[in-house]
C-alpha cells in the first residue's frame, strides 16, 4: 500500500500546452526516456483523435517494454477500438476511458442525462476489458460532480472491471482540504472501492495541483497523474518533479516507492524537443540550493549528473549543477526568438488534432 504509481501524461495532456506540439519521433524519444526513468505508466496519446496520434501511440507501444503504455479513449466504441488497435503490440497496455460526471458538463458538453452517462460509462469499461485487464476509468470534472452520482458511476465502473479509478480536478477548481475530503468520502462510500487503485489528475489553475495531488496521497490515493515540468493546458498539470521531490523530502508523511534521480535529464530533453525553457523558479529541477532562473532570455546553461534512475532517491538531489554550456557561455537572450521561430515552423506538424480540441479534450 506504500507504493505510489507515477502516471506520466506529458505526451497526451502535456501536448495541450501552447507551442508544445510534438511529432511522432519526438514523442517516441521522450517515451524511451520516461521508460529509462522507470515511470510506471506512460499515457502515449489519444489514439482516436487523429492519425498522427494513433501512429505515435502505436510506435511507442511497439518500442517501450519496461513501462505500461496507455491510450486515452472517450467512453464510446470507436475510441476504445482505436486505442486497442494502437496498443496491440504493447507488452503492458492500459486503456484509459473517461466521461464527464458534473451536472454542468453533462448538460452543456455532453447533452446527456445522468442515467445516459451512467450507462455509457458502464458499457465503456465493459468494452475496454475485452482488450486488456488494465482499464482506467476517469470521471471528468469529478471535483465538481455531485457525490451521490459519482459514487454510483464509480461503483458500476469497478463492477465492470475498471482496475484504476481516477478523480480529476479537470478545471483546477479544488483546494487540498476539500479535494482530500472528496477522495476519502468516495473511498468510504463506494462498496467495492478496495478492488481498484485510486488516482488523481490535477490542474494548476489556482496553483494547487501538487498540493491537491499530495492531499490525495494522504487520503488513500496510490496513483498520481502528472507531466514533465507541469506542462498541460491552461496553467498546466501536476509537476512530476515537484511531486517526486515532495515525496522524497517528506517521507515521514508522504510514503511511497518513488524516487527522484534523473529528473534533470528528462527535463532537459523535454525542453530541447519542445523549444521550451524550464519553468521557473524551479528548485526541484535546479541546482543544489540554487534556483534556475528561467525568465525569457535568462536561462543559464546546466547539465545532468549521471544517476541510476527515478527510483533511486536514497541519496543525492535532483542531479543538476549550474555550469556554462560547452562553449563556456550562458544561453543568450537572442536565442529565444530563434527557438520560438523553430516551434512555429510549418514542418513541425502536431501529432494530435488541435483543431478538434473541444471534441477530444481529456479528463483533465
Key features of this structure:
12 helices, 14% strand, single chain, globular, TIM Barrel, alpha/beta, 36% helix, 10 strands, two-stranded antiparallel ribbon, 8-stranded parallel beta barrel, 364 residues
State the gist of this model.
The protein is built from twelve helices and ten strands.
What does this structure look like?
The protein is α/β, with parallel strands linked by helices. The chain has one domain (5-260): Aldolase class I (TIM Barrel). Helix content is 36%, strand content 14%. It contains twelve helices and ten strands. It has helices at residues 24-36, 51-63, 77-86, 103-110, 114-128, 147-160, 176-189, 209-217, 240-249, 263-274, 335-343, 357-360, and strands at residues 5-8, 41-45, 68-74, 93-100, 135-140, 164-169, 197-202, 223-226, 302-304, 320-322. An eight-stranded parallel β-barrel has the order 1-2-3-4-5-6-7-8, surrounded by eight helices. A two-stranded antiparallel ribbon has the order 9-10. Helix 2 links the parallel strand 2 and strand 3. Mean pLDDT is 79; it is low at 256-264, 276-340 and 352-359.
Amino acid at each position: 500500500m506504500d507504493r505510489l504509481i507515477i502516471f506520466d501524461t506529458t505526451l497526451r495532456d502535456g501536448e495541450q500546452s501552447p507551442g508544445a506540439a510534438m511529432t511522432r519521433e519526438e514523442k517516441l524519444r521522450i517515451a524511451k526516456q520516461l521508460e529509462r526513468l522507470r515511470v510506471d505508466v506512460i499515457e502515449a496519446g489519444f489514439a482516436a483523435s487523429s492519425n498522427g496520434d494513433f501512429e505515435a501511440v502505436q510506435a511507442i507501444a511497439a518500442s517501450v517494454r519496461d513501462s505500461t503504455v496507455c491510450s486515452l479513449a472517450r467512453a464510446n466504441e470507436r475510441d476504445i477500438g482505436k486505442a486497442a488497435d494502437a496498443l496491440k503490440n504493447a507488452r503492458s497496455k492500459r486503456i484509459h476511458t473517461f466521461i464527464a460526471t458534473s451536472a454542468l458538463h453533462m448538460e452543456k458538453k455532453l447533452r446527456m442525462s445522468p442515467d445516459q452517462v451512467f450507462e455509457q460509462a458502464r458499457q465503456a469499461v465493459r468494452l475496454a476489458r475485452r482488450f486488456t485487464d488494465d482499464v482506467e476509468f476517469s470521471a471528468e470534472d469529478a471535483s465538481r460532480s455531485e457525490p451521490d452520482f459519482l459514487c454510483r458511476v464509480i461503483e458500476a465502473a469497478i463492477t465492470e472491471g475498471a482496475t484504476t479509478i481516477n478523480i480529476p480536478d479537470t478545471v483546477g477548481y479544488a483546494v487540498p482540504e476539500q479535494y482530500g475530503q472528496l477522495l476519502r468520502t468516495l473511498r468510504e462510500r463506494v462498496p467495492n472501492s478496495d478492488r481498484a487503485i485510486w488516482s488523481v489528475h490535477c490542474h494548476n489553475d489556482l496553483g494547487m495541483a501538487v498540493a491537491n495531488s499530495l492531499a490525495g496521497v494522504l487520503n488513500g490515493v496510490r496513483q498520481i497523474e502528472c507531466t514533465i515540468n507541469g506542462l498541460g493546458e491552461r496553467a498546466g498539470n501536476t509537476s512530476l518533479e515537484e511531486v517526486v521531490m515532495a515525496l522524497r523530502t517528506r517521507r515521514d508523511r508522504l510514503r511511497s516507492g518513488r524516487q527522484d534521480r534523473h529528473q534533470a535529464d528528462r527535463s532537459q530533453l523535454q525542453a530541447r524537443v519542445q523549444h521550451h525553457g524550464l519553468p521557473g523558479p524551479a528548485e526541484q529541477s535546479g541546482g543544489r540550493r540554487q534556483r534556475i532562473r528561467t525568465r525569457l532570455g535568462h536561462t543559464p546553461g546546466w547539465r545532468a549528473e549521471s544517476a541510476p534512475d527515478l527510483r533511486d532517491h536514497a541519496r543525492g538531489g535532483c542531479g543538476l549543477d549550474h555550469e556554462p554550456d560547452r562553449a563556456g557561455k550562458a544561453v543568450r537572450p537572442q536565442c529565444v526568438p530563434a527557438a520560438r521561430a523553430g516551434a512555429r515552423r510549418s514542418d513541425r506538424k502536431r501529432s494530435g488534432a488541435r483543431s478538434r480540441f473541444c471534441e477530444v479534450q481529456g479528463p483533465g
